[in-house]
Amino acid sequence: MNATHDPRRRSFVAVPPDSHFPIQNLPFGVFSSAGREPARIGVAIGDQVLDLAVIEERGFFHEATGNAPVFNQPALNDFLALGPSAWMRVRGIISHLLNAETPTLRDDASLRAAALVPQADTRMYLPSQVGDYTDFYSSRDHATNVGTMLRGADNALMPNWLHLPVAYHGRASSLVVSGTPVRRPCGQTKPPNADAPVFGPSKSFDFELEVGVLVGPGNAMGEPVPVDRAAGHLFGLVLVNDWSARDIQAWEYQPLGPFLAKNFCTSLSPWVVTLEALEPFRRPAPPQDPVPLPYLRGAEDWTLDITLEAHLQTPGSAMPSRITATNFHHLYWTLAQQLAHHTVNGCPLRPGDLLASGTVSGPTPESRGCMLELTWRGAQPLTLPGGETRASLQDGDRLILTGWAEGDGYRIGFGEVSGEVLPARLADAH
Ligand code: CA
Asked: What is the pTM of this model?
């Protein structure tokens, strides 16, 4: 750890105590605002955004990133490709500039006006141009619950599950940023007692509370990344809502896994919280039994202590209500193991690729990360504070995921990822 992690460091930009964006965080995102077009890269501080294109143009990053502009860009990919030493130097420069003790920006009113913009005046975009998106299935509690519902408790985990981080290839083309509505999909389903499948709007619409990691420098095709070098290829984390149509999934998924039940929309939070900012929240990874094969065994297996919550707001409720509280450290497979496994066959990853964790469920009923588990496949509908019940998401419902790591007097937060469910297009149902 370094001076950027010092819990006593304060910014001259006002940061309320419950803010997700104190000077210890400094998450990166892509934004635009009036007069700041096209979109460029900024860092959140309190309720402001520091426009890194302006800071870069003034030459502050020259030593760290070289001549080519990496922040006057509509995506983080070029910065991600630079790797951990450049990321660390840039974070150090930004933390120094925003430090209450540093006069450079603090005492220069014209530079402040040029470089700081209220978050309320910005529009946010996807943080990277994602070439490929992979969705893992790394929560043992989630896999056990889903397996129990589908196959019974005795066969809950498939024989491979404790030996490798199971995943499938998702669809980068349907990734959207927080705030984008999600339309209920139509598809083919087979009701339990029907002889033949039917077509129509999904009747079992769900969210999945996940955390995604953005890949930094990639690996050449044919060259695996060893598990102990995986961290050097991982930049930072975002919240992911992997919207799911359970009835479509149940009919289509065998034998090749999820397809149309998953690839119509996946929502990301706009601010990327760097692994460097999260260093104070590293924890030993959970024990693994059986011991995995050597290529998945790191010298030091770590995870992160990040509180994660899901909140649901129905059209009939004035406020969202919390329906899930869980933690990233419940995941069985680590970020490093996911990356090492993904590349062990020589599969090339590229800067900006997204690896999502899979639903993050904990061991208790309140810590389950999707409606499928929270309602036990609809058998135990949720009762919301206003008395409404939900077995699955209804049209007009808004689902919000949030998360943060709790420091001593500060929070390293992710902000949120939200989306409202729109009715299916009826024309699609015929
Ligand atoms: Ca998923």
From this structure: 0.97
